[in-house]
Amino acid sequence: FVADVHTTRGHRPAATWAARILGKVGEEAGIIVNDSGKYASCHDLRRTALQNWLDAGQDSETIQFLARHASFATTQKYYVENKADIIAERFRQVQSRYNGS
User: Tens digits of per-residue pLDDT, 54-76?
Assistant: First the structure.
């Protein structure tokens, strides 16, 4: 699937246009991003990219800049704290396998 980056009038498309297209692609591909059956969206792509950069070792301040968060507290809430929860859960899973639980 390749979309032309300009509208029929030669202008750049609005963000809502891109969000609608990406939402349709997520739905048609059947990419479900949570337990309630929500299909992938533009915002999910953004979150995934930022989380991947953080997981790859990018510092939190750069993630804040890329996310365009005015407050580091917002970045911490959605990315840094989330990463700590994920690491803790992975540790518990490994520990339970090791202990035979």
Answer: 888 888 899 999 999 999 999 88
Q: Which two tokens stand for residue 33?
A: 């991003």
3-state secondary structure of 30: coil
Task: Give the chain's end-to-end CA distance (angstroms, integer).
Answer: 45
Q: Residue 39 forms beta bridges with which residues?
A: 32
Beta bridge partners of 67: none
3, 42, 74, 77, 90 from 87: Cα distances, Å: 37, 25, 20, 15, 5
User: Residue 63: exposed, middle, or buried by beta-carbon count in 10 A (0-12, 13-18, 19+)?
Assistant: buried
Please say whether the beta carbons of 98 and 90 come within 8 A. no
60, 79 Cβ separation under 8 angstroms: yes
> pLDDT-derived band of residue 98, with 50, 70 and 90 as boundaries?
confident
